[in-house]
Write a structure and sequence with these properties.
Elements lengths: L1 H9 L2 E4 L13 H4 L4 H5 L12 H10 L4 E7 L16 H4 L6 H12 L2 E7 L26 H16 L8 E5 L6
Parallel strand pairs: 1-2, 2-3, 3-4
Helix pairs in contact: 4-6
Length: 183
């Protein structure tokens, strides 16, 4: 209850959807909406190079606007991780020329500037081969027709442990999305 009350008292925050899909500028659902295969979609990663990203500037600007927190995409439905995940190389550090952990940078900037960091995290994953049954979306990705959802849940649990285990400092909250895909 305390967390809910604190969230309500904060009243204003900034919610950012940002990832490899940004290269195309057609939204975070582009892989599904344009029926892109994993192989085709992975070609975007070498083009994702946000060299002008400045976590401190973002934090300063958002705080000046009155924001109390920032929510950023740690992983959207495309499975691309905006942190240095040890569970996959499908992340900003290993697959892009940028090669830096965006979540880490933003977490540190939030701490320096007195903002809370919240994470948006997709529970569905169009990229992971064990995400089964396929659910309602991502049918054109080229994933295998079978998989072990238990293994996928272990993968997701390990990733959440990476994010929430302390290396990123205090996390104000997590916004889960995508469980509806399995219903």
């Amino acid at each position: 209850m305390k967390a809910r009350e604190a969230f309500q008292q904060d009243r204003f925050g900034v919610f950012i959807h940002w990832g490899v899909y940004s290269v195309l500028g057609r939204g975070e659902w582009v892989m599904n909406n344009e029926k892109m295969s994993i192989e085709e979609y992975e070609k975007l990663a070498p083009r994702f190079n946000p060299i002008r990203f400045d976590a401190d500037q973002w934090a300063k600007t958002f705080k000046l606007a009155g924001a109390k927190y920032i929510t950023i995409t740690s992983k959207h439905h495309d499975g691309f991780c905006m942190w240095d995940s040890k569970q996959t190389d499908w992340d900003i550090v290993d697959r892009t020329p940028y090669g830096k952990d965006v979540i880490k940078q933003l977490a540190e900037a939030c701490q320096r500037h007195g903002l809370k960091l919240f994470l948006y995290h997709s529970q569905l994953d169009w990229h992971h081969p064990e995400y089964h049954p396929l659910g309602m979306t991502g049918h054109h990705s080229g994933r295998p027709d079978s998989g072990d959802f238990g293994k996928y849940l272990d993968y997701m649990d390990a990733q959440l442990t990476e994010l929430l285990g302390g290396d990123y400092g205090p996390i104000g909250g997590i916004w889960f999305d995508g469980w509806w895909d399995q219903q």
